From TrEMBL:
GO MF term set: site-specific DNA-methyltransferase (adenine-specific) activity
Matches recorded under InterPro entries: MethylTrfase_TaqI-like_dom, N4_N6_ade-DNA_methylase, SAM-dependent_MTases_sf
PANTHER family: DNA METHYLTRANSFERASE A, DNA METHYLTRANSFERASE YEEA-RELATED
Stated name of the protein: site-specific DNA-methyltransferase (adenine-specific)
Keywords: Methyltransferase, S-adenosyl-L-methionine, Transferase
Organism of provenance: Arachidicoccus ginsenosidivorans
EC identifiers of the protein: 2.1.1.72
Length: 1605
């Protein structure tokens, strides 16, 4: 139990600040055990000084001034112990607040040029007696009120600045204000950002307060009691260290790379996230429990199971859960005054808290179990919230509740639960699940603190529900899952991998270990059965995949928003815009989910507004009112400026609730978002784009015997012009026609789907024929008709804008908050939520311009998604255009494009805003004058159906006022779905046949199941519908007119959102997206990159090593990307290899000291544990400016191209790497310059099927061409790395080959052998075209085709001999010249070329250019040294004798190692004749050869030693880790290694720990057990054992070769 720390206001979440908190602090600090002991001693030394101070306070009758002086002196000792310079202070110049007010601050410590930590002090809070109650943080003052000019108080004057006279003096004409300590703190935390510290350390003798700027205003801080520390430390000395680590300069002040408190706060957030996981499970349980109870009651009332709508029931139960979550939150926040939580009558008679107190009380009697006390209490509370209680009474002895004008509490919104009674036992269980943490062994269930649970955590709970579906079981069901492993339970399997429901009748079709059995207490099993009629609420993987609804971690949301707003806020700092301008910014979240990005933008904008508005007005907000004012500003932004869309309607509702909870404040009206938060598909819709008439009009070319001929027109292959709004109208020329009025050849693609063509051949044929006619060029009559339709659309757009503008004004939120006096209007009238909804719904009337425009745009979208099964209804072009005329129902001949009405009339708008009633009247008049759409035929119904099904969303129509008034959004931010559009029939069918997912199923079996699946009409309909949706979506997104920048790329939703996003934002706006890195290296992404590089401002590349995204793979890379609306020059900052956003800010801080320190790599060694950990430390060099010069370097180096504007972006860890890349790129020789041939070898699947090779693991006969290499055979410079085991099925079925024990003619096993080897086989695979020689006769440099970016080495290659071939897991290259071959093998064995390949970041050697662009043909000075080491590494058996002997050079014997060591074979012993002794065989000498090849290659390519070390330190973390823990004996054998690539080599760690300190001369005999190849053999290791230092070896080798070459 921690006694010396008070966690005030839950600074740390209660589930994080527990008995293990001290241990967490020490572990997070990274301090070693010895360092902790030293800290304990240092802090313990303060103890006698403290008790001496206390004794003086108690025994001596000290004056206040004496106490202040003694306390100040004691603070000096404490600060010195904490690592500060206690003798230094800033009291010579008190900290200014205004021109005539100051606050005494003892020390200010900066991070960069901004204050980071302030040290302040106050009177000691030492008690003289047990009853003594010293005044504290909220009572103490620096001066008395009288002294500051207030009226004289009758209260004894306790504070006077003269008491501090020996410490500081207040200058003449200045005074201390605020006087009260807590108000002074609040005032400091309200200063401008550049003057405001993040932390304040407040010293009070025996008490120490750690205050953080954001937490302070929600009443949260840490209070550390020194005397209690001494008591606690008597039993646990490490508590001293905890005190030091929390408050000490080393980990709190700005010199630290990562501030410990920030790391702890983040861990606390993670702990809160763990609570949300409990809460998620609780919500799922609650929905199921409520629904099943409702089903029972409904059946009792006479309803049949079949008549109960599962979706309606789910909605009702979710509504109940939302109500409860809202109430938990509202009751925990008394300051909101939503509920009178502090009223005794309410608390004991009505509150949810009253029911929470009964949550674990055993219900024993019949009435307590099956009664309805809970139900009546809850619904009474719901009714009070809906209708209000005594809210208008002037005087009221009892409590009052203001009604919530929200659909959430409207009983009319419930389908079933308003007529159902839920029993006590059920409600108690539901409340338990929502208010208590999960049951744990030997621990009680902790109470979830909703006050401490942030909106982001609640949002993650909400978002977890989005893909859940409610189902009523039609029959008894069982649950099946993948087969259990040994000692695994069904619960564990389902928790990790999910499960499927199947009818109980299929029980015998599944293995026992595939069926969910509950484990009972007595060890027995019980089949889990879901009875018929049960409501099941479960995650639907297919729905989840389609929506891709994964919650974005808060740290990523905050960082994305911060850098999206950064350019805007920089304008504010420069005075280019005003604080009030921030309140006009229109904000879009395109895949809003639970509105996490919305809320973060709102929060950051509100803070920026208040900070800068205070400065502009030269007026400060009362610190006590600051939080309330913040909420009001947040509410204003949310209710007037937030726009969003999500394909999931539940997400939209959750987003509204999340926004409400984030901005809620006292007396706030229920928020109305209306159409601004809408349901829709963010990537399928139409835009205000247009083609010119000449691009699609019929154009005769002449006449032939067959008739007239015409120019072929394919306008859809061209990019339409994106139109803009002017002052009076949309800026469209007469000869421009909207793209959504023209056909495209890819429409109705369902006619091309193979399965549908087979099922509906006639319909498919008809649709294809009609589509052929559909896309012919348009004749003059059609064009004339389209011009009239386009003019009508122009007019409707103006009318729609006017109506939507009026609706926005009517429903606009009030503007009464700090600094809002200059806003041009105040809302004089207010309307209820229902009235606002009715106004907004006006646009949905059939005569409304919006309704007609949406029908026209939906029609065009529907043509893309047309179902072949409705082929007969697909329109001819004439029918389509006639339908459009029916929709318009206007006199087309009397519509003129140049409307006299001005779209934007600011004076008119201002006058409207003063009188809402006139706007309402105008709205009604506008709608009266408009005629309704007459489009009501069969096609109209189909289009309505397609629009509802595919949720077409037309941004410029839905949010027209944004595009007219502001020319687009100012801020668009989000995490769009990372989803490739493909039809996965297995995912669909697995809901009926889960065996497709939980087992391996043969292709014939899958075909059979597909046939059975399609026999059922409803399943067939579902199958075909899904197929059409995926196919049509992919076609739509690949259409050039829709997404011209994505031409040729694989469809991915995030790319579509990105291209759309460039049109969402205005010239002054910014788009911030989290998305994968695919756009930067896509071979077909040049056009997209060329566009985005001119807009990109920040690119932060992450690897998911910390699992910030729980659902994303550990090695997945993604980025935060900030794009500008305005095209500019190519200039953006890029930071790569990030693991946590905390690193970013430190990279932007100008720190001259940090800049002098060497930049560290992807992993660094933890000094405390000795382990290598992911590097999160910032460094100025990590921030790399990518501009034209760098892009040209990348294009030339990696693509051998002069086209740089859209060059691929590689991972550049630090600025210095740019020079390395440039030098490698500028090397004059390339592989492509020398004649070569690259081969992929045998295809291990296709060529087996074709009968060219067979799977046959054996020791091969090289002379019969039987050796076929696979990837695991090779490693860097080692063609005999591993051999397959006799039975080789899994990746692990290989053994490391001991090169010191093999015979001269040893050959590894092969897994494949060739078939049909007959006379002349050797010449069947040709080498070079101009030679008779064959490919098989060449030595080859072979590389593993898969590139292990996360491994010790990425490029793994070696020389393989003639007659050997390989499968396609290897890529090889041959040269006419053996010298070129040896050189290429040598340089590609170096980390220099490996670094080059790593930098590209590809997962495989996919195309030849990766090898062809590599440097070759180095200076002759380096050849001999490189050749001899390359040959000694590769020539390992007799099959290399010819290579050695033909390339032997007598100069080899003159070479020398860069170090003297008996483990290294002397070069002087070499001879031309190859023998077993020729190659390097022990691990030590092979390593040294590779080290020296690294140096030779670096020198040959013009790099420096520092650059070689930089490459090694940055890009080779696993190699560093292995080097650091690989130990050699005196014979060069590896005794122990942590390398995962050398499994079976050396000892296991426990054995190694026993012998590692053996003295010189001793031996250790080891029996091999981990290698099938050498199992049972003995090996002797000779002490002493040593490890290597690669950097030291590089330095030594560099000096060696520099003097010789």
């Amino acid at each position: 139990m921690i006694h010396f720390i008070n966690n005030i206001g839950d600074y740390f979440a209660s589930n994080y600040f527990d008995d293990g908190f001290s241990k967490k602090v020490i572990e997070k600090s990274g301090y070693s055990h010895e360092a902790i002991k030293e800290i304990n001693k240092r802090m313990a030394a303060v103890k006698p000084h403290y008790f001496k101070l206390k004794q003086q306070f108690i025994e001596n009758h000290l004056r206040p001034k004496d106490k202040v002086n003694l306390t100040h002196g004691f603070h000096t000792k404490i600060l010195n112990a904490l690592g500060y310079d206690g003798h230094q202070n800033n009291y010579g110049e008190l900290f200014p607040i205004t021109y005539n007010t100051v606050i005494p601050v003892r020390q200010i410590l900066y991070r960069g040029d901004k204050p980071h930590l302030m040290v302040m002090e106050m009177h000691a809070m030492i008690k003289r007696t047990a009853e003594d109650q010293p005044e504290g943080l909220f009572e103490q003052s620096y001066v008395s009120e009288e002294e500051n000019g207030a009226e004289k108080s009758t209260k004894e004057q306790k504070y006077h600045r003269s008491q501090w006279a020996d410490i500081f003096t207040v200058p003449e004409g200045m005074h201390i204000s605020p006087m009260i300590i807590n108000q002074a703190v609040g005032q400091i935390f309200l200063l401008d950002e550049y003057r405001r510290p993040k932390y304040i350390l407040l010293c009070a003798g025996n008490q120490y307060y750690l205050l953080e700027s954001e937490n302070w205003f929600r009443g949260s801080y840490l209070e550390l009691d020194l005397e209690a520390l001494f008591d606690d430390a008597a039993t646990n000395k490490n508590d001293y260290s905890v005190f030091y680590l929390l408050l000490g300069k080393e980990l709190l002040a700005p010199t630290a790379d990562i501030v410990l408190m920030e790391s702890l706060e983040e861990d606390a957030h993670k702990a809160a996230y763990e609570v949300t996981k409990d809460l998620k499970e609780g919500v799922i349980h609650a929905v199921e429990r409520l629904a099943n109870e409702a089903v029972v009651d409904l059946v009792k009332q006479g309803k049949q199971y079949e008549d109960i709508n599962a979706d309606w029931l789910k909605e009702d139960c979710l509504n109940m859960v939302y109500r409860l979550l809202f109430l938990f939150y509202a009751e925990s926040r008394e300051d909101l005054a939503i509920l009178p939580a502090n009223d005794e009558v309410y608390e004991h008679g009505y509150s949810l808290e009253m029911l929470r107190e009964l949550e674990q009380v055993p219900l024993i009697t019949e009435s307590s179990i099956n009664g309805h006390f809970f139900h009546k209490s809850l619904f009474q509370l719901f009714d009070l919230l809906h209708t209000g209680y005594r809210e208008h009474w002037a005087t009221n002895k009892s409590f009052k509740i203001k009604h919530l004008d929200s659909p959430m509490f409207d009983p009319k919104g419930l389908h079933y639960l308003n007529n159902v009674k839920i029993r006590n036992i059920v409600w108690q269980d539901v409340i338990c699940e929502l208010s208590l943490s999960k049951k744990q062994q030997k621990k009680g269930r902790g109470r979830i603190s909703y006050a401490n649970l942030g909106i982001n955590q609640l949002g993650s709970v909400y978002e977890s529900l989005l893909a859940f579906r409610g189902v009523l079981a039609a029959v008894d069901n069982i649950e099946v899952h993948r087969k259990k492993k040994k000692n695994e339970t069904s619960e564990q399997v389902v928790s990790n991998d999910g499960s499927f429901l199947v009818p109980r009748s299929r029980l015998d079709e599944f293995d026992h270990d595939e069926i969910y059995y509950k484990e009972m207490a007595d060890g027995s099993e019980q089949l889990k059965v879901i009875p018929k009629g049960s409501f099941i609420y479960r995650l639907n993987g297919r729905d989840r995949q389609k929506s891709a609804s994964y919650y974005t971690p808060e740290v990523l949301t905050q960082t994305t928003v911060k850098y999206t707003l950064k350019p805007i806020l920089e304008k504010l700092e420069k005075g280019e815009i005003k604080a009030l301008d921030l309140l006009d910014l229109k904000i879009l979240e395109p895949a809003m989910g639970a509105a996490a990005f919305h809320n973060e933008v709102i929060n950051q904008l509100a803070q920026a507004y208040l900070t800068n508005r205070q400065k502009e007005l030269n007026k400060k907000i009362d610190p006590n009112q600051y939080q309330q004012e913040t909420q009001k500003v947040k509410a204003y932004i949310a209710l007037n400026n937030v726009y969003g869309v999500d394909i999931n309607p539940t997400a939209v509702e959750l987003g509204k609730l999340s926004l409400w909870l984030n901005v809620i404040h006292k007396d706030m009206q229920t928020p109305f978002f209306g159409y601004r938060l809408g349901e829709g598909n963010a990537v399928v819709g139409s835009w205000l784009k247009a083609y010119k008439v000449k691009e699609f009009s019929i154009e005769p070319t002449g006449t032939t015997k067959k008739g007239n001929t015409y120019v072929k027109k394919q306008w859809w292959t061209k990019k339409p012009e994106h139109l803009k709004f002017g002052k009076k109208r949309i800026l469209r020329d007469e000869d421009q026609i909207y793209h959504f009025l023209l056909p495209d050849e890819d429409m109705a693609s369902s006619a091309n789907i193979k399965l549908l063509k087979e099922a509906y051949p006639n319909k498919s044929k008809r649709l294809i024929e009609r589509r052929r006619d559909f896309v012919q060029p348009l004749d003059a009559d059609e064009i004339n008709k389209l011009k009239k339709i386009a003019n009508a659309i122009d007019a409707l757009l103006i009318a729609h804008y006017n109506i939507q503008r009026d609706i926005a004004i009517i429903t606009k939120s009030n503007a009464v908050f700090f600094g809002s006096e200059d806003i041009a209007y105040k809302m004089l009238d207010s309307y209820s939520y229902q009235q606002k909804k009715e106004f907004a719904d006006n646009r949905l009337k059939p005569n409304a311009p919006y309704y007609k425009l949406k029908q026209i745009m939906d029609y065009w979208c529907s043509l893309w998604f047309w179902d072949v099964r409705s082929a007969e209804d697909f329109p001819t072009r004439a029918e389509w255009y006639n339908d459009l005329i029916q929709i318009l129902n206007l006199d087309l001949d009397n519509i003129h494009q140049d409307s006299p009405e001005q779209l934007i009339d600011e004076e008119l708008i201002k006058s409207y805003r003063k009188d809402k009633k006139s706007i309402v009247k105008q709205l009604a008049e506008a709608l009266k004058q408009s005629t309704s759409s007459l489009f009501t035929n069969q096609r109209a119904q189909l289009i309505q159906k397609y629009a509802a099904q595919y949720k077409f969303f037309h941004y410029e129509l839905e949010f027209i006022e944004v595009f007219v008034d502001r020319k687009g959004f100012d801020v668009a931010v989000g995490n769009p779905p990372w989803l490739k559009i493909t039809f996965e029939e297995k995912d669909l069918m697995s809901e009926i046949y889960p065996e497709l997912e939980i087992r391996k199923i043969s292709a014939p079996k899958v075909k059979k199941l597909q046939a059975e699946f399609l026999e059922n009409p409803s399943r067939q309909d579902l199958y075909f519908t899904e197929n059409i949706e995926n196919d049509a979506s992919a076609v739509f997104m690949n259409a050039f007119q829709n997404y011209p920048l994505l031409k040729g790329q694989q469809t991915n939703l995030y790319k579509c959102v990105l291209e759309n996003g460039l049109h969402w934002i205005n010239n002054d706006g910014f788009l911030g997206l989290i998305h994968p890195e695919g756009i930067y290296d896509d071979p077909k992404g040049y056009a997209l990159r060329e566009e985005v590089y001119k807009r990109l401002r920040y690119h932060f590349q992450f690897q998911n090593a910390f699992n910030l995204f729980a659902e994303v793979a550990h090695r997945e890379k993604y980025g935060i990307n900030i794009y500008a609306g305005k095209l500019g020059i190519q200039k953006f900052y890029s930071i790569n290899n990030l693991f946590h956003p905390a690193t970013i800010e430190g990279c932007f801080i100008e720190n001259p000291t940090a800049a002098l320190e060497p930049v560290q790599g992807i992993k660094i060694k933890d000094s405390a544990t000795g382990n290598f950990v992911w590097n999160t430390k910032p460094h100025p060099s990590r921030k790399v400016l990518i501009d034209e010069e760098v892009l040209k370097i990348l294009a030339a180096t990696f693509e051998n191209s002069k086209n740089w504007q859209g060059s691929k972006l590689v991972s550049i860890h630090a600025k210095g790497i740019v020079d390395v890349i440039k030098k490698i790129g500028e090397f004059p020789g390339k592989v492509a310059d020398i004649e070569n041939k690259i081969s992929e070898g045998w295809h291990e699947t296709n060529d087996v099927t074709a009968g060219f090779i067979q799977r046959d693991t054996k020791y091969p006969d090289f002379s019969k061409y039987e050796m076929i290499y696979s990837g695991p055979h090779l490693f860097v410079g080692n063609p005999m790395y591993k051999t397959p085991r006799a039975i080789c099925v899994e990746k692990a079925d290989y053994d490391i080959i001991d090169l010191t024990s093999i015979k001269a003619d040893y050959v590894a096993r092969t897994n494949y052998t060739p078939l049909n080897v007959t006379a002349g086989y050797g010449s069947t695979i040709k080498g070079f075209e101009d030679e008779n020689g064959n490919w098989l006769g060449y030595y080859k440099v072979a590389f593993r085709a898969m590139l292990s970016q996360a491994g010790e080495r990425t490029l793994s290659g070696a020389i393989i001999p003639p007659k050997g071939t390989h499968i396609n897991t290897i890529k090889s290259i041959i040269f006419k010249s053996l010298h070129s071959l040896i050189e290429f093998s040598g340089v590609t064995s170096s980390i220099v070329i490996d670094f080059f390949i790593k930098t590209i970041g590809k997962a495989g050697l996919y195309d030849s250019s990766q090898l062809l662009n590599l440097p070759l043909n180095i200076n002759n000075n380096y050849n001999s040294a490189l050749y001899v080491r390359t040959l000694l590494l590769n020539c390992l058996n007799t099959h290399y004798a010819e290579l050695w002997e033909e390339n032997y050079d007598p100069a080899f014997t003159k070479d020398a190692w860069s170090t003297q060591d008996n483990r290294l074979k002397p070069f002087s012993a070499l001879s031309k004749t190859w023998s077993w002794n020729t190659p390097l065989r022990n691990y030590f000498e092979r390593r040294m050869a590779l080290v020296e090849i690294d140096v030779i290659t670096a020198m040959a390519l013009g790099l420096s030693l520092e650059e070689l070390i930089l490459m090694y330190n940055i890009q080779f973390p696993v190699l560093q880790q292995n080097e650091d823990d690989t130990w050699y004996d005196t014979k060069g054998n590896i005794v122990f290694t942590c390398s995962k690539g050398l499994t079976g080599v050396g000892l296991d760690r426990p054995d190694w720990e026993k012998i590692k300190d053996l003295p010189a001369g001793e031996q250790y005999e080891h029996t091999i057990t981990k290698s099938a190849l050498y199992n049972g053999e003995k090996v002797i290791y000779y002490a002493p054992f040593t490890k290597c230092d690669r950097v030291a070896d590089y330095k030594r080798a560099w000096a060696h070769f520099e003097s010789r070459l």
